[in-house]
Amino acid sequence: MAKKRKRKIDNECRQFQVEWSLKYFFIKSSENALCVICNETVAVMKEYKLRRHHQSKHQDKYAQLEGKVRAENFYKVQNKLTSQMTLFSKSSNEN
């Protein structure tokens, strides 16, 4: 009997697509996709996984936003998150 080889996600070379940022409010953080709204990560960078997270958790608040308003909202939330991340890294570096 031949053994079945398990598929490894690392071998599939999944990459974060820039258009997912505005569509689903995600950014790439280290090797994972990070939701800028709730700070949850999605380990596998598939559009389906990001879309499912966005629809199940943030659909009611962010579905009606389109175009320029959506982009402004995304950048505002992203800047807030990055400022929090830099604050923590600065304090750990000082210690």
TrEMBL record:
Domain of life, per the record? Eukaryota
Xref: InterPro entries: SPIN-DOC_Znf-C2H2
Q: A Pfam family for this UniProt protein?
A: zf-C2H2_12
- Give start and end of each SPIN-DOC-like zinc-finger domain: 18-69
**Protein name per the record:** SPIN-DOC-like zinc-finger domain-containing protein
Organism, as annotated: Sinanodonta woodiana
